[in-house]
Design brief:
- The chain is an alpha/beta fold and 213 residues long.
- It has a domain of 114 residues: P-loop containing nucleotide triphosphate hydrolases (Rossmann fold), CATH 3.40.50.300.
- The strands form two sheets. Strands 2-3-1-4-7 form a five-stranded parallel sheet. A two-stranded antiparallel ribbon has the order 5-6.
- The structure holds BIS(adenosine)-5'-pentaphosphate.
- The site of BIS(adenosine)-5'-pentaphosphate has 34 residues, from helix 1, helix 2, helix 3, strand 6 and helix 8.
- BIS(adenosine)-5'-pentaphosphate (AP5) binds next to helix 1, helix 2, helix 3, strand 6 and helix 8.
């Protein structure tokens, strides 16, 4: 089973992907994480991508596809794609590589996204928090490893505006492309409730697949 988790910046893709990965036998592949990992190495490519994502622009598809193929070639298992595809070209590329079974489209209104993004905090161990909805036990420090939390450079109100504009411009073609496979998820509910809806869908996947076809 290969799944895509789709939605605007801050809709909860990463949060839900982490929960899905634990519950189901899926490998979480986040292109955003792959990019940030390359940036942390301070490589030439990382430096180029740092500038692009700080502006909220998309990294060129050739680079993304290359990073993805490297990741996919390590093992053949079921995948959960987060942040990929973002364009019609990336979607077509993915279809050449493997078969996508289901696209979960997390919907959240624009008004809520700003609060989700600007109050999000990360730890270098990969954990993420929110000042209101997923507070660390000790303010500013990670529950898991105790390190100091930080915010993403692209998590500002100004950059979010650009990220959202790009997301919206790509939404329609992708929604049309995946219309037979895409299922809407109400992302405005509490984290646990969103996950319970996804869990229900994935647990009943085969039954659901027959309903779609
Ligand atoms: P990427 O890392 O993919 O970022 P994004 O799509 O903008 O999404 P986010 O990671 O910001 O949000 P999310 O939906 O995962 O939300 P989260 O779960 O953290 O991409 C970053 C950049 O990389 C792009 O802008 C682009 O430049 C580049 N890039 C990446 N992929 C690319 C590609 N394929 N092609 C080209 N360029 C690419 O939740 C947000 C916050 O809200 C958290 O604090 C969380 O705790 C909280 N929260 C989550 N769910 C809930 C809830 N239900 N209720 C209350 N709070 C919640």
């Amino acid at each position: 089973m290969n799944i895509i988790i789709f939605g605007p910046p801050g809709s909860g893709k990463g949060t839900q992907a982490e929960l899905i990965e634990k519950e189901f036998n899926l490998r979480h592949i986040s292109t955003g994480d792959l990019i940030r990992n390359e940036i942390s190495k301070e490589s030439k490519l990382g430096k180029e991508m740092k500038e692009i994502i700080a502006k909220g622009e998309l990294v060129p598809s050739e680079i993304i596809s290359r990073m993805l193929v490297e990741k996919l070639s390590t093992e053949k298992i079921n995948n959960l794609f987060d942040g990929f595809p973002r364009t019609l070209m990336q979607a077509k590329f993915l279809d050449v590589v493997l078969n996508i079974d289901l696209v979960l489209n997390i919907e959240v209104s624009k008004e809520l996204l700003e609060e989700r993004i600007t109050k999000r905090w990360y730890c270098s161990c990969g954990a993420s928090y929110h000042e209101i909805y997923k507070k660390p036990k000790k303010k500013g420090f990670c529950d898991i490893c105790g390190k100091k939390l930080f915010q993403r450079e692209d998590d500002t109100k100004e950059t979010l505006k650009n990220r959202l504009e790009i997301y919206e411009s790509q939404l329609k073609p992708l929604r049309d492309y995946y219309k037979m496979k895409m299922i809407k998820i109400n992302g405005e509910q509490e984290i646990e409730k969103v996950f319970s809806d996804i869990k229900f869908l994935l647990s009943n996947f085969e039954k659901l697949k027959n309903q779609i076809n």
